[in-house]
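Reopening this one. Same input as before:
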Amino acid sequence: MCFELSDKGVFLAELPKVIETKMKKQGYHFIGRHSAVKICEYTANGLRGETLCYKYSFYGIKSWQCIQGTPAIGCDIACKFCWRLIPEEIGVKWNELNAVSEWDDPKDIVDGMIMEQKRIVSGFKATADTPLKLKRWEEANDPKHVAISLTGEPTFYPKLKALISEFHKRGISTFLVTNGTLPEAIEKLDPLPTQIYISLQAPDEKSYIQITRPKIPDTWKRFLKSLSLLKDIKTRTVLRMTLIKGLNMHNPEGYAELIRMAQPNYVEVKGFSYVGGARGEDRGLSLTSMPNHDEIKAFAHKLSELAGYIETAEHKPSRIELLSRDEQSAKSRIIDFSKIH
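Same output, byte for byte:
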């Protein structure tokens, strides 16, 4: 299969109606041809005055001012632990890698994401019955952060550079999450996002193929290339791990080797959640696949010893541990929003 990133992109022809219907029922709000937003549990919690996201604890991101969105709904891998709907699992033959002739304008996508986010949070005004909740609702209508990580693979979008620039022009910080299968897209990023994540799904090629079920050739090789790029990227860098008992919670030495290759500022060691598409029978997962926080903490401690990283913070509600590359990264983890432009 020929797989190249071009001005035409590498994406879907048209979203099948059955998938669109199911995604709308799951709370997705579509924007244009290929983008979407969805409210995060912690955004809703923030508006209710409840527990906030780990990104608030780790990096100072106000959960109630955070957009969760993507400029590309399709994906080139089908991770067993992913919460998204995978077409083949509902009997839909849909080639997510078909190229389209025209992509939506970045400004239109940003306008649409902000508009839909305001539409989503509008209903929370009725329950803003304290000064704190009302203040957060008012701030939620002026989002200051976007997590480009909702579903699909955002680096499919060939105008990603301009999209990031458009967010930054509005004083909105950007966390870009990629699966690392398009290193050529990562190399072209300019401006860079506020923080870039690469998902670290497995410690070795055999486990990686089993877990990600790739749709393109040479995926592991592409992934390693992306990891090798990370150490030289001049922005905040993160490896994000989702650990599943009985599937990828093994070989810490292999993970440590990959961490040393990438040398990210941070490693997020997170426990799998049995939600959404991950509950499908074909995935082979269950509630027992979810490690508890103590198990995550123990695994993160082992990684810190092997990779030479510092145990920095934890967020028990999310079952996640933060490791930092050095003291400087640990001390500077809170985002300076005055530098977002």
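So the earlier flakiness isn't reproducible anymore. For the record, The chain has twelve helices and ten strands.
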